[in-house]
Amino acid sequence: MRKHLYAVLSLALIFAPIPAIAQQFPTVASGTVIGRTQSGTGPAQAIPFSTLIATMLASSPTIPTLNTTTVIYQGTTSGQATVSAQAVAGTPTIKWPNTSGTVATNVTSPLVLNAATGNISCPTCAGAVSGSTFIAPSRTSAAALDLSAYAVVRTLGYADGGDGGGALFKKVGTAPFLDSFIQSGTIVGGSSYTNGTYYGVSLNGGSGLGAVCQITVSSGAVSAVNCATQPGNGYAVGDVLTASNSVIGGTGSGFTYTITAVTTPTASFTDTAGNHWQYVPDTIGIVNAAAFGVKSDGDGAGSGTNDFTTVQNALFYAARRGPTNPDAGGFQGARVIVPAGVTNLCSSPAASLIVPFGVILEGAVGGTTLRACNSFDPGTHVITLGDPNSHLASFRSGLRDLTVFFKRGIAANNTIALVFTNSTQDGIALDNVYMYAGQRSCLNFQTGYGGASTVDIKHISCNFEGSNAGARFSYGTTVVRVRSAIFGAPSSGTNNTVNTVELVGSGGLYDFDGGHTEQIPNGFSVNMSATASVTIKHWTGGSGCTQLVTLVSTNTAGNLSLESAQKNGCTKLVTNGQSGGSDRSADVTPANGIVFFNP
């Protein structure tokens, strides 16, 4: 029994809890840890860090000595990078242990290296390269780039890709733009010039060509120079121009005109590196007005972009000529194509849209409307064919396949028209042009500077109201031929029309062949001198017409003939106010031949 009790007490002592006793470690030296470096259990020991690291790593690394000219680089290719000392203060060159051993210090276009940050970017990667031509989404995006690496740029739009204003450009260094024009200058008046106003004065010198100006001389010196209607092409600020005294009265010397400002081109552009990029038509001689910024985004009621300046820029660019005048074997002029849509024309200060020498302004038939703003100056013609200030002939300037519009009910001064000229000749002035003139005349053709010549007008429609005639002609020796013309006034609302066509002046030979007048009291008003000749044939009147022709009392008898003319709704055919003259009610038929009124 005692033996058993002893055994139980022994087991109880074995399994009884043993109180924890705190472990005590000796003082540890700097750079050591307490542990074991060998496998298995055993007493703890102090282990230096260097021994511990060497044990943990497969092999001991070699750590080079560092100084102020080196850094440690660890990568897929291990090694040591070197910082090269600079001869002068600056950013050190760090050579990395990569394939080339260097970081990028330059790149090849179209990549760009930022010298400050070292970042590599591709700002032109929004475009593309085809051969040696860089292709950009738009003129706007191209102008925001450094295009120094290229000789030719193609854009796919003007402000945005696909907006119709895409164009071709060539780099011309810093040469003046051909679509930049004289804007202002300073005058050295000279002395001993003959007082007067001189028209069509060509200025010589400078970097450009084609400036033809109106010059005023007072007190023996040039006092004014106006080149606004024929400002030339390719001039630069600082150009010094002059003119022969033979075209300024024949006397005097010392006149100069120094250009102080030229217009900013709206087709050509300057890139961020200062390179000039000159607009080049895709088809030489055909200018896309949309490439000059013409939007043609009008809503027909007056809203939309004012395209007056951009259309004018395209026209003045198209007027450029070579170093030789056309009559000496050179060239001048081109066609300007206006996009389909409504193109708003608002001039401020008052100015007429000039269609220069040799230039045709052309649209997309009925799809292109030139709409004058309601605020257009009532004393200014909307469009002028040729330079009105030069008093020189303007060959082959005209309009094609357009609608020209001015709102009804807005007053205009007497004889003010949608389309005016005093100089166009030797070509077709209007072809397939529809005009809605409001209270303006559709046409005012007069004077014929340049001498005897011809002017042709065909396939026109003129709709107008008010006291201004639908068309007014006043020539001296010009032969005017009008083919297929329709004139009409509104059947309701403001009307007050008087004459379809007014023929006045001291001369001119007129041939009106094929036409109709409707809702206008009088067809033709003829009041001309004996040297004039008027033939009207294949013409009909219409409702609202009192007479197809009126011979005014001051007209010279014998200058009018009719052939195949019908009153067709007019009360009578001719009202003859000439002294001793008699009216005619009957139509003129082929059997009647040519009918004269003398008196």
What does this 3D model show about the protein?
Helices cover 6% and strands 38% of the residues. It is mainly beta. The protein has three domains: 119-180 and 264-280, no CATH class; 183-262, no CATH class; 283-596, 3 Solenoid (Pectate Lyase C-like). Residues 1-16 and 74-79 have low confidence and may be disordered.
Number of domains: 3
CATH superfamily of the largest domain: Single-stranded right-handed beta-helix, Pectin lyase-like
Number of strands: 44
| Alpha plus pi helix count | 4
Backbone structural class: mainly beta
Q: Separation of termini? A: 176 Å
CATH class of the largest domain: Mainly Beta
| Mean pLDDT metric | 88
Largest sheet: 13 strands, mixed
Give the C-alpha Rg: 44 Å
**Percent strand:** 35-45%
CATH topology of the largest domain: Pectate Lyase C-like
Topology (SSEs and partners):
Blueprint: H1 2-15, E1 32-35, E2 45-48, H2 49-56, E3 70-73, E4 79-84, E5 93-95, E6 112-113, E7 120-121, E8 128-130, E9 133-136, H3 139-143, E10 152-155, E11 168-171, E12 182-188, E13 196-202, E14 209-218, E15 221-226, E16 231-233, E17 240-241, E18 256-262, E19 269-270, E20 276-280, E21 286-288, H4 308-318, E22 335-337, E23 341-345, E24 353-355, E25 360-362, E26 368-372, E27 383-385, E28 394-395, E29 398-405, E30 417-421, E31 424-425, E32 427-438, E33 441-447, E34 454-464, E35 471-475, E36 479-488, E37 499-505, E38 509-518, E39 522-528, E40 533-540, E41 547-551, E42 560-566, E43 572-576, E44 595-596
Parallel strand pairs: 9-10, 21-22, 22-25, 23-26, 24-27, 25-29, 26-29, 27-30, 28-31, 29-32, 30-33, 32-34, 33-35, 34-36, 35-37, 36-38, 37-39, 38-40, 39-41, 40-42, 41-43
Antiparallel strand pairs: 1-2, 3-4, 4-5, 6-7, 8-9, 10-11, 11-20, 12-18, 13-14, 14-15, 14-16, 17-18, 19-20, 42-44
